[in-house]
Structure formats: C-alpha cells, structure tokens
Amino acid sequence: MTELTKRSMCDLGRAIGAGALDPIDITTQFLDAAEAHPFGPRIYARLTRDRAMAEAAAASKRAKLGIRRGLLDGVPVSWKDLFDTAGTATEAGSALLKGRVPQKDAEMVRRASAQGLVMLGKTHMSELAFSGLGLNPVTATTPCVNDHAAVSGGSSSGAAGSVAFGLASGAIGTDTGGSVRIPAAWNDLVGLKTSGKRLSKEGVVPLAESFDTVGPLVRTVEDAAEVFAILDASPAADLRGATLKGKRLLILETTAFDDIRDSPLAGFDHAVSRFKDAGAVIERGAIDVVEKAMALSGILFPVEAYGAWRDTIEANPDVMFGPILDRFRAGGSVSGVDYFSAGRALEMYRAEYLAATAGYDAVILPTAPILPPNVDRLLSDADYYVTENLLALRNTRIGNLMGLTGLTLPTGIPSVGVLLQTPPNTEVALLRLGAAAQIALS
C-alpha cells in the first residue's frame, strides 16, 4: 500500500484542490493496486476501469479550470454490489442474480457521480446482504485486514476490504442490521449508519426495506461527514470545535454485554476511559424495552426478506449458500398476524426507547461482542456458524430496530469498534460528536 492509498478522502480532495494531485493519477493508482493485489478478486466483484478513468478525466479538467464541484470531486470510491449501475452487472453477491445488468444508476450513485466521486468498481458482499459475517462461498469471501484467515464482516464485506487494504479511498455500503458498522469495526474503519428514510434506496437491491439504510465506510469522521453530505444533498457537518466536554453518554447495559469476548470488552473500556478524559459524563443504565424489541427481530427481518425474495429463491434455491437459504425461508413460517403484531409493538418500543434516552447526547456500546470469526471453521462447524452469525449483528441490530443513527469508530485495539447511537435524523449532531470522540481515541 502506497502513502497515497492510505490517505483519507478529504486529504486527497484537498490535494486535488491545491494542484498537488491529479484525479487521473489517483484513480489509476487505485485501479492498478486493485488489479495487482492478491486479495483484489476477493474484494472487487468487478472493476469499472473505463467509467472510472472517464470520470477522473472530467474531474481533472474541472480542477484545472477551477470549477470543482466540491471537496471530494475526483476522489475514487467503491460501491457495494447491490447499487444498480448502468451497463455494469449488479448481482448482490448471489448466483440468483448472475448476469443482471441494470439500465440506469441507483439514485445514490447518480448523486455521487454528479458531485465528482469516481466509481472504481463493485465490491463483494454477503449473499443478498443477509449475514453479518461476510462469508460467501457462492462468489467470494473478503478477508479481514487484521486476520486474513477470518471474515471481514458483512454484508458490506468487500466495501470494508477495499478501504482497509488501500484499494479505495472510501466505500458506499448498506446497513440493515449492522452491515456497514460490523465490517467497518472489524477492519478498523469509521462506519455511518444513517436514518431509515434519510437516503434514497431507489435502485438498491433490497433485503428488508423497513430496515435497509445506506452509509459510508471510510477512514475518518470527516470523510463520513463529506460523503453523507453528498448523498443527502445537504451541507457538510461543521466539525470545527467539536468536543466531548460535558456531553452525557449512556452505556447501554441491556443485551450489549451478554457473552462479550475479552478483546471487544477491553476496547470498549479503553474508549470509555478516553471519553472520560476528554470531559464526557458517562453513565450506565439498562433499557428494558431493548430486550423486548430484540425478541421481535426473528419475526420482522426474515418475513420482509423472504417476502421480497421468495419467488426468485424458490425458482432456483440450489444455487444459494445453505445457511443463507435457511435464514430466508424462516420468514415463511411466520403468520401475518404475528408479523403485524410485531410491527405495531416495535413502534411502541421505539417511542419508549427515545423517551428513556432523551437526556443523553448519545448511547454507547461495543460495536460487536466478538472478533472476526475464522473462515474455515465457519464452513466446517455448523454450531459455530450459527453462534457467531447471531452475535456478530446483535449489538448493531439494536440501532436498526430502534430506527437510530449510528457511528462506529476504531478503538485502537484491532477489529474492535465503539458504537455511538443517537435518535433518527440526527446525523449532523452525531458526526460532530464522533469527530470529538475520534480525537479522544487518537
């Protein structure tokens, strides 16, 4: 990895603006690195070199004319392989969609391209986005940057790998139960889960549409803020003067620490200590309604997922990875009455959660209670697969169930993140808090 490919998106953008770097050279270096890297084929499902070079050339021309469209104009990123891209296959990590070529870009791709982000390619992912592990024997399993024998986390597995291995400056993924935050945490990145209806999902292959969200995986909170602003078509959050001093943070004790492993606990405790040193007021507390909401996830997620995919799956089920197929089919055994009842209960639980946390600037918890599991053992040990798959997304799923905004930050312990969660549509406030937290952790 060269120094250029280690730099943040905003650093690259500033260098382009200063005339020190050219988008053509930056893009060429990332594409060449992706093609030469031994894990390149396990990170990228396909590169889009022709599109990337055309977009980079246009950005280069704008830079020379002094008409850049923004800080990130000319900066190259990767896209999870469930964002539709005109003329380029979008297969969502599944043989069920092999050869599917959309006729137009997804709304988020169009918006990013209009602001000058350069598309490097489409990244591998968990099959149809229905796993937090990133294990995909059907297409490819992206390795974790800290343990090449382990999974990278999912479902935005290749998205995280592209940034962590220096094959993209940033990545755009999706998060239904933790699919941005888990791979970000396990690869020592920043991951932003946006509010449920904040960013358009038009042209995004769905999983469970009530819970699907779009978000970036990047190196810094500043990068996350700039990418979010582009996707949201809003001004970027002003991170200047961000501080933790006097901020009230609640450690969520309900569910989040059950069966937690030593390293994730140590990383979280380290983060809490640094937040205290920076002046944050830390409290601990249980929120009983979280446990009640978690009990509904086995109803809500599988029913939505199977409802969206049943006909496609049952037309060709043998091409799917068995555990993912089973997870989808679990939705078929839930009655309509139970699903409707669960949805109504969740609305009530969300209101109770927001009332219980209203006096805090954020709720904090370990992003994941486990480290990235070993690939070979996941494939050979069924019990291990089930245990690790459920634990991987357990903490992050709280945010999706409650409809929250979430930001995971690296703690300094490899593959361990700390998660900050705030109410829906508070991305700007969360990013300011996250900027201060990142400084404290550094």
From TrEMBL:
SUPFAM superfamilies: Amidase signature (AS) enzymes. Its EC number is 6.3.5.-. Keywords: Ligase, Transferase. It comes from the Bacteria. Residues 26-431 form the Amidase domain. One of its GO terms (molecular function) is transferase activity. The keyword Nucleotidyltransferase does not apply. This is Glutamyl-tRNA(Gln) amidotransferase subunit A. The gene is gatA_3.
